[in-house]
Amino acid sequence: MENMKNKVIIITGAAMGLGFAAAKELASLGANIVLVDYNDKSLNDARAELGKEFPDVKIITIVADVSKEEAVKNYVDETVKAFGRIDGLYNNAGIEGKQASITEYDVNIFKKVIDINLMGVYYGMRYVIPVMQKQKFGRIVNVASVGGIRGVLNQMPYVASKHAVSGMTKNAALEYGRDGILTNAIAPGAILTPMVAEAFKEVNPADPKAAETEYAQRNPTRRLGQPHEVAKLVAFLLSEDNGYVSGQTIAIDGGESNMY
Ligand code: NAD
């Protein structure tokens, strides 16, 4: 994918997991990368690793909590200051919250999940889109989940937030397609990242590996997904090779969301 050379891509939640894997993939394709995360230590580690592997790529880091509107406005302003444009936004930062039934769910954690997963994605689009409109070009990938397509036991706020991401994606595609901005969402199944490893610890604290193996057996492929597999899809959706896919929520889950 030659046409990612010199593109400017913002990645939120870039310090680890799916965000970091996408940063590696995009850096390998020659894009300039803006790494955004609220964990400044992991962010610096991520930058150091990328810098070593891709010494010719321009990488900047910005510490921001995506649930804070001012912090989002700031990462957009800083990116424009550094590069003069924004070609792509990978709106990826998100949390799972805790696992609990609807009636037992801690309301404060519910609100936190919504603030990060829903409002964080909204703020990202709100401040990046005007920059893309001026350029008459942009690509946005919002991270939903299979929990944005169907229900997931004991994760109501996560499911609510991810259905909202899918809905916001449709609206952004409708409202800004005329400006050359294509917006899509991805819906990963279980991809082995630190977030998912934590979830297996919660399901079976004594033996998280057993929980992982059991979960993998439900998937048609009998395995979990890998972050670099998701990164390939994200790179395509953020590139000019994607000329006409917009407003979609694309599952990347080994086919699991088709099972009854
Ligand atoms: P992860 O926990 O491994 O990494 C998430 C990164 O986002 C971390 O670096 C964290 O510091 C950062 N982050 C979290 N909240 C933030 C905030 N408010 N502001 C800035 N940075 C923040 O998680 P992951 O598995 O890589 O998940 C990334 C995204 O993919 C999330 O939106 C998640 O819901 C979604 N997702 C993941 C899976 C999966 O199987 N891993 C499946 C479906 C959806």
Describe this structure in words.
With about 260 residues, the protein is α/β, with parallel strands linked by helices. The protein has two domains: about 1-190 and about 225-250, Rossmann fold (3-Layer(aba) Sandwich); about 190-225, no CATH class. The chain contains eight helices and seven strands; from the N terminus they run E-H-E-H-E-H-E-H-E-H-E-H-H-H-E. It has helices at about 15-30, 40-55, 70-85, 105-135, 155-175, 195-205, 210-215, 225-240; strands at about 10, 30-35, 60-65, 90, 140-145, 180-190, 250. A seven-stranded parallel beta sheet has the order 3-2-1-4-5-6-7, sandwiched between helices. Strand 1, helix 1 and strand 2 (about 30-35) form a beta-alpha-beta unit. It starts with 7 loop residues before the first strand and ends in an 8-residue tail after the last strand. About 45% of the residues are buried. The mean pLDDT is about 95. The structure holds nicotinamide-adenine-dinucleotide. Nicotinamide-adenine-dinucleotide binds near residues 13, 18 and 19. Keywords: Oxidoreductase. Pfam families: adh_short_C2.
